[in-house]
Structures are given as structure tokens and as C-alpha cells.
Amino acid sequence: MGDRPLLLVIASAIGRQYREYLLKSMSSSYRLHLLAGGEPGWEQQYISGWTVLGNLQETIDAAELSAAARELASAEPVHGVFSWDEARVLQCAKVAAALGLPGGDVDAAMRCRDKHLTRAALAAAGVPQPASALAEDLDQALAAADRIGYPVVLKPRAMAGSLGVVRVDSPAELAGQLPFARDITLPGAWRYDSVLVEEFLPDPEVSIDSAVHAGEVLPMFLARKELGYPPYFEELGHLVDAADPLLSDPQLGAVLRQAHAALGFTDGMTHTELKLTPDGPKVIEVNARLGGDLIPYLGLLATGMDPGLAAAAVACGRRPELVARRQRVAAVRFYYPERPGTTIAEVGFDRSGLPAEVDRAEPTVQPGAVVSPPPAGTIFGRIALVTVVADTPHRCRQALAEAGAALLIRTAGKAAAAVERG
Questions:
Q1: Residue 249 and residue 192 in one domain
Q2: 127, 283 Cβ separation under 8 angstroms
Q3: Strand partners, 348
């Protein structure tokens, strides 16, 4: 059985490019058993075993997951349950509850998963946030927008990665964009017929990834978000500075702790998004998982603190060791096609044009993929990514621009051309 704790990992459709670093670090100190919707591939080098359940592209039933977990626990102790996927945080909490493990507060997970429940809990506790109303149909949405005042933001109740989020400036725009916010979905996720109508808060926007142990909120990384493709809120990139003064800002820290207390979230990892307003920070949402878009990876590059080991520790009821071993700046940029319905023949980089600060520069699509920029493409329209590490935010941004200039794409029937997006 080994001396290392056994951690159950609920697999997802989010693949190797975005999450391998987590499994790799976890496997150094934990035995990992994958609960998956199909035979694992690249994951096998990091796991000690796996159980195939359901269909990876669909929502694996929580009762089925719990039954499999109980069977494993009957043979040897299971110390924790973990998932990095927004579409599976509720299932993860239900499995943890079935085994009596940390992170098993299903109601707290649901208050994070359902953005309307988030708003209600934060409002009851007086946590600063944008004005928000739930709308079941167009008439209710129009009435809410009139009360709040244009511009407003339409937002799905249960998505992630800014999917379905759009600014509208008039009743006509609201009517046209309501289906976009209401109908968008993800593999394994569910959708509501209702949407949130919310007060629009201008940038800047930041996110904080925290480890939460026995109710203690331990902020790890603060990322500054770069948005694009208005009126949509496509996340073009993020920047993490180990020395960012906001991470130790008392007001921001107080709002972060108040939000977690209001939601009753006591054990696990969270990704909290906030807008920095003249009236102080306001909470956009609190996700019961690590951040996406390689934000925790940037934190690892910038500080040396390992998000995988922190996540595994809190899942097993242990206080993580969070010691910054370096003080750098790391950033990521995502690139998109120029036109809708672009068929990709080849994506790559002119390596001679990449600056020394580049950590990763790689395609995110395969030849033959048909992709579009937002709104049709959203995060699924990305064609490449670059991560960089430097000593200053300014140099990070310069390096990203230089790497973007070295991006080469060839579309069907066209010669290769250098392009930069973002």
C-alpha cells in the first residue's frame, strides 16, 4: 500500500496541456487513484491506479463515484478527494462527504458552483459585490437591467472561464445576447434556463488562488487578468507577480476572508475573482477549485510554491507548507485566429524569434481544427499559448509581444504568416 497518502482524483475533459503539472507534483508525495470516464493515457505515469466510470464527456453520476470510492476505501484508507474541474466540484464534495473527508460540505460547494447562491450568501453577510438579479425570462432581465442601470452584465449561473459572460448597453442588446448567456454549456456541466443580470464594474480585475484549511484562508497567488473581445470577457492572459503588493493588501485580504466565511467554505482550494473599484474590492465569484488558464502554474513559476502539493494537502486535511522560494514575475498569453471558421493547417513558432524569457510556446489545436475568435470560439478558439518568466511585469509583457510576433500559422490554402493576437 505504501507510506504515501492515497488521494482520489476525479478526472475531467481538461487535458494534459493545462493540468499535467498538477498531477506531476502531486505524484511526488501522494499515491493517486483516478476516477475516470475512460482509460487514462498520459496520466498513467503519475497514478497508482484507476477506475473507469460513465463517460468522461458527460456528468459522471456522483452516486456512482461515491460507490467506487467506498469500494476503494474498504481495501485501504483514502485520505482525500480532489478535482480541478468546475463541472465536477459538486461531485467531488459529494464523494468527500460519502467518505467523511475534508471538502465534504456539499452545500458550500453548491454555493460556489451556483453563482446566484453565491450572490445570496455574500449579500446576507454584507460582502462587497456588484448588484445582481436572477432573471427567468427576457421580461425579468429587462426589468432587472432597468433597476440596476445600463450597462449591465449577463452571466450564466454555472459556467467558468468567463463563458457566456457579456456586457449589454441597451434593452435591444440585452434581448439579442440573452440566448448567448443562457444556452452556453461545457462538457459535463449543467445549464439553467435563468441568468444573472449584474452591475457592470470596470476593470481592473484580479484573481486570488487560495488554500483553505479548517476555515483558514491562505492566499497563494494573485493574478492580474487581461480581457479582450468586448463586449465579451474573453481571458486573453494573466500575470502573476510574486511581489504584487495587492496580495498583502489588508482591505483585499479582509474581503477575501469575509467571502469564504459567508459561503461556509472551510477546506479545499479556491479561485476568487474580484474587481478593484474606487469603493474597494468587490467579489465577482468564488470558485471551489484551483484557477484555470495556467494561473496556478504561473504562481509556481513566480514563487516556487507548489499548487499541486497545496491542493493535495488540504484535500487530505493537512495545512500546506506555503513558502515562497523565489520572487519572479510570470505571465501567459493566449492567441486566437483572425477570422471565424478558420481551418488550421499548421501552428508553430519561429524559435529564433522567441526571447529567453519564454518558458512554454506551443499550439493548443491540431492541424485540421476549425476555430473561431470570440464570441463563437471563446476559450475553444485558442490556437496557441505562451508562458514567460522575467524579473518585472514590464519585461514579461515585452517578452509576450516578442513571442506573439514569432507565432506562425498556416490556414487551409494559405501560405504561412506571422501574426500576433493580444
A1: no
A2: yes
A3: 408
Beta bridge partners of 386: 333, 361
Which uninterrupted H or E stretch holds 346?
strand 342-349
Burial class (CB in 10 A: 0-12, 13-18, 19+), 353: middle
H helices present in 41-137, as ranges: 62-75, 89-99, 106-113, 115-125
134 Ramachandran zone, left/alpha/beta (phi>0; psi -120 to 50): beta
pLDDT tens digits, one per residue of 16-43: 899 999 999 999 999 999 998 888 999 9
* Residues 28-81 pLDDT 10s: 999 999 998 888 999 999 999 999 987 555 556 888 899 999 999 999 999 999
Per the structure, the count of domains in the chain is 4
Which grid cell is 338? 483572425
Alpha-carbon gap, residue 404 to 333, rounded angstroms: 9
d(CA 163, CA 180): 9
Return the CATH number at 96: 3.40.50.20
Grid cell 459529494 in the structure block, residue: 94
> 384: helix, coil or strand?
strand
Supply the range of the domain harboring residue 350: 331-418
Ranges of H-type helices in 55-100: 62-75, 89-99
pLDDT in tens, 252-280: 999 999 999 999 999 999 999 999 999 99
Percent share of the chain, pLDDT over 90: 82
In Å, how far are 134, 303, 314, 321, 366 from 318, measured between CA atoms? 38, 21, 5, 9, 40
